[in-house]
Structure formats: C-alpha cells, structure tokens
Design brief:
It is a single chain. By secondary structure, the protein is mainly α. Helices cover about 65% and strands about 0% of the residues. The chain contains twelve helices and no strands. Helix 3 packs antiparallel against helix 7 and helix 8 packs antiparallel against helix 9. The longest helix is centred in the N-terminal third of the chain and has 28 residues.
Length: about 325
C-alpha cells in the first residue's frame, strides 16, 4: 500500500532552473572565435623552421606576426558573421551565434569590426614606426584581408574557390612567419600546409552537406559526397608526400633528414587516416580543430610524433 503524504497531495514537480543567456562580454568574445586562434599559434611559428638565426629579433617578429594575424582573422570572422546572419539562422548550430540569434545588433557588430580594424592598423603601424618590421614585410596579412574580403563579397559561393581561398589563408600565415624570422618559404612545407588545410576544409564541407544543406552554404551545390570523398583522398596523398619531401630536405635535421622522414612517415600517415575515419565513418568534421583535439588517438599520435621529431632535432644539434 502506498504511503500517503503529509498533505494528502502529490509533491510538486521540481523544474530545473532556466539557463541564463550569455552576457554581452561573452557574446563579443564568441564573435572573434578565440577557439580558432590556435591556427595562428601553430602555423605562423612554422616560419622559424630552418631560420638562419633564432635571436630576439626573429622571435619578436614571430610574436608580432601571430598578434597581427590573430587580429586580422578575428576581423574576418566578425565580418563573415555580419554578412551570413540570415543563412546562419537556418543552420542547426550556427543559428546560436550572437548576431544570428539577435543578441548582438548589426550596428554594434559593425562598430566592433571598425574597432578591430583600427587596432589591426595601429599594431602594424607600430611595428613599422619602431623599425621592427618593414612595411613591405606585411604583404601576407594584407593579401589575407583582401582575399577574405573578396571571399565575403561572393567568392564563398563559388564551388572549389571557396575551399582554396580559405586554405590559401594558412599559406599566407606561413609566409608571414617566414618573413618575420628571415627565412625563405620552404616550397614543400607550403604545399603541405595548403593540402592539409584543404583536407580539413573539405571534411568540414562534407559534414555541412549532411547537416545544413545548400540553404546555408550555396557553394555546396557544386559538390557531392562522392566528389568530396575523392578530393579528400587526393589531398591526403599530396599532404603525406609533401611532408616526407619537406622533412628529408629540411635544414632542421641536416644529413639525417631522409632517415627522420622514413621514421616519422607512419605517424603522418596514421594521423591522416584517422582524420579520414572521423570524417567518413564517424560523420564528424563540423569543427576540425575540436574533432582533432578531442580525439585521444589523434592526440596520442601527435605527441609521439612530436617527441620523435624533437628527439631527432636534438640529436642532430648534439652531433654538430
């Protein structure tokens, strides 16, 4: 027999407290995508590889290049969100972005973009005035802003161009890092960065076809899942070949370059294969950075790979 309550009535249903909307500061921070800043932290310093010197000037120039590209990419993210707000509202995930959700008005977003543009110009001007960097040395970031302005104005809707423009942005990051450290741009490294970024972006497009459809990204009309799978395989092969050719000819490892390339190639191949598995089998790839850093197999492989490369570099230095 059921035990009666003291009042003879059922206990009231306890409802969980409603979640509070993000604060204005949280929304303004989200607009500039701090989670994406790791791209600049990873790609720009690649210019230090093989630099003729690693002095305070090279390191300071690299830090300045990271800061400038971070501001430039934050500005581009914000401008894209302003222009894409209507399409974002039709996307199951992007509809929660501050501008698409209506939490940040267009006027506020435009003022925010103007402030970022002013801060970017001021930072570049300071490096020029102080003599830390020549004006012509900032051409990669200027090309990045111009290329992405054209992207936002309509090139994002052109199939293939949409992915190549985004990938070229990473090659420009590499070029800026090389200029900052006084190092010529290694051709095989540049091709490796281009093809690896194409691989990540194509994986994202494949995910978007299943989630958002062409209403959110009109350029998807120029793709099919089969076509994207062929491009993924093609770019993965080019990325692997570029990596091996760069390592074996890199001055970082000296005469041991060919051996280091052979020993580390399995890690590169496993990393590429694992990403393709996440994309094709597990239907991931909506956020490549999050997918890779959240995957234990990928992180473990990257740590072992990095340890082997660092050990090879150290042995080469000790042997000189």
């Amino acid at each position: 027999m059921a035990t009666p309550t003291l009042t003879g009535r059922e206990a009231p249903t306890v409802r969980p407290p409603a979640s509070r909307p993000p604060s204005l500061l949280a929304d303004l921070t989200a607009l500039v995508r701090p989670g994406q800043w790791t791209k600049n932290l990873v790609v720009v310093p690649l210019g230090l590889l093989g630099a003729p010197r690693l002095d305070a000037g090279a390191l300071g120039g690299t830090l300045a290049a990271i800061a400038v590209f971070t501001l430039a990419s934050a500005l581009i993210y914000l401008v894209n969100d302003i222009g894409d707000r209507d399409r974002d509202r039709r996307h199951p995930e992007k509809r929660h972005r501050p501008i698409a959700a209506g939490r940040i008005g267009v006027g506020t977003a435009v003022a925010y973009a103007a402030a970022l543009a002013l801060l970017l110009a001021t930072t570049v001007a300071l490096t020029v005035v102080t003599g830390a960097t020549a004006p012509a040395a900032w051409w990669p970031v200027a090309a990045y802003v111009a290329l992405n302005a054209a992207y936002s104005r309509g090139l994002k809707h052109v199939p293939l161009l949409d992915v190549f423009i985004v990938a070229l942005g990473f090659v420009l990051r590499l070029a800026q890092g090389c200029l900052a450290s006084g190092n010529p741009v290694p051709s095989w490294l540049a091709l490796g960065v281009l093809t690896l970024c194409l691989l990540l972006i194509l994986g994202k497009r494949r995910h978007e076809m299943a989630v958002g459809g062409v209403l959110h990204r009109p350029a998807l009309r120029g793709y099919t899942v089969g076509f994207l799978d062929q491009l993924l395989g093609f770019t993965a092969v080019l990325a692997a070949v570029s990596y091996v050719l760069h390592v074996q000819s890199s001055p970082v490892f000296g005469a041991h370059g060919p051996l280091v390339a052979v020993l580390t190639a399995p890690f590169a191949l496993f990393g590429l294969a694992r990403y393709l598995q996440l994309i094709v089998v597990d239907s991931g790839g909506g956020n490549p950075t999050r997918a890779l850093f959240a995957d234990r197999m990928t992180v473990t492989n990257a740590l072992l790979w990095s340890a082997l490369l660092a050990g090879a570099w150290l042995l080469d230095r000790l042997g000189r």
